[in-house]
Amino acid sequence: MNSILNVEGLSKRFGGLAALSDVSFEVERGHISGIIGPNGAGKTTCFNLITGTLSATSGKVVFDGREITGLPPHQVVERGLARTFQAATTFPKATVRENILRGALLRHPLGLGSSLFGGAAAREAEAAGHASVEEVMRAVGLTEHADQIAGTLAYGHQKRLGVAIGLATRPSLLLLDEPAAGLNPEEVDRFGAILQDLKRDFNLTILIVEHHMRLIMKLCDHIVVLDHGEKIADGQPEDVRNDQKVIEAYLGAEHVE
Ligand SMILES: Nc1ncnc2c1ncn2[C@@H]1O[C@H](COP(=O)(O)OP(=O)(O)OP(=O)(O)O)[C@@H](O)[C@H]1O
C-alpha cells in the first residue's frame, strides 16, 4: 500500500471520556477514503488530532513519511494537509475570490505578498497565485459568484467555498468534515461529482467524514468505521456495508439513509 497518511494507535481523552481509543488506519495515496460512525463516535476528534487542532493523549500521525503528531495546524497545512470544518469557516463579509485567496495565502504567504517589495519574480509569483485562485474557483463551480459576498451565497455554494479554501492551499491530502451536511439530494450528487473531478484534476487524496451513506458508499475506495471512539471496521465499501458490527452500531442511528 502506498499510504500518504498513517494513523497509529491514536487516542484522545477528555477527562474521563475516551473520545478516541487506540485507533489505527492508513490512507492510500490517490484514494478517496471515508470515516463514518454514529454521532459522537470520534470522527471529528480524529480529524482534529490529525490536523493539530487538538493534541493526542497518545499515538502517532505520519503524513507523507514524516511524523506530524503535535505540530500546530499552520505547519500541518504548510506540509500539504488541508481541512475543511463542519461549520462554514468562510469570512462572510469578504467576496468569494477574497476568501479563496486567503486560503492560498495560508500556505504561501510570501509568494503572493512579496510584490510589495517589488521585483519581477515577486510579480510573477503573485500572478501565478491569482491564476491558481481562478482555477480553484472554476473547479468548484463558483466562478460566476467570484465577486459575491460569501455571507450571501446559497448554502450549497457556501459548502463549496469551504472546499475551495482548503483546495487553494494546494494540499496533497484534503480532509473534509461533513461537506454534504444540509445539502439536498441533487446537491449531494453534484457535490460528489465535483469531488471526483477535484481528485483527478488536482492530484488529490481525500479523507472525508460524512453521514450521507449513499455518497460515502459511492465515492469512497476505502472506509474506516468508528463507534464510541473505537475502530470497528476498515475496508472497502461493500465489506463495511455488510459488516455485522457496523450494522449493529448504526441500528437506530438517526443519520443513516
Ligand atoms: N472538546 C471536547 N471536550 C469534551 N468532550 C468532547 C470534546 N470534543 C468532543 N467531545 C466528546 O468526544 C466524543 C466524540 O466526539 P466527536 O465530535 O469526535 O464525534 P463525531 O463522531 O464527530 O460526532 P458527530 O457525528 O456528532 O459530529 C463525544 O462524546 C463528544 O461529546
TrEMBL record:
Nucleotide-binding as UniProt keyword:
yes
Signal sequence range: none
UniProt xrefs under Pfam families: ABC_tran, BCA_ABC_TP_C
Say if the entry is tagged with keyword Nucleotide-binding. yes
Would you name any one GO CC term?
plasma membrane
- Keywords of this protein's UniProt record, alphabetized? ATP-binding, Nucleotide-binding, Transport
Where do the ABC transporter domain residues begin and end?
5-253
Give the domain of life. Answer: Bacteria
Q: Name one GO molecular function term.
A: ATP binding
Protein name (record): ABC transporter ATP-binding protein
What species is given as this protein's source?
Hoeflea olei
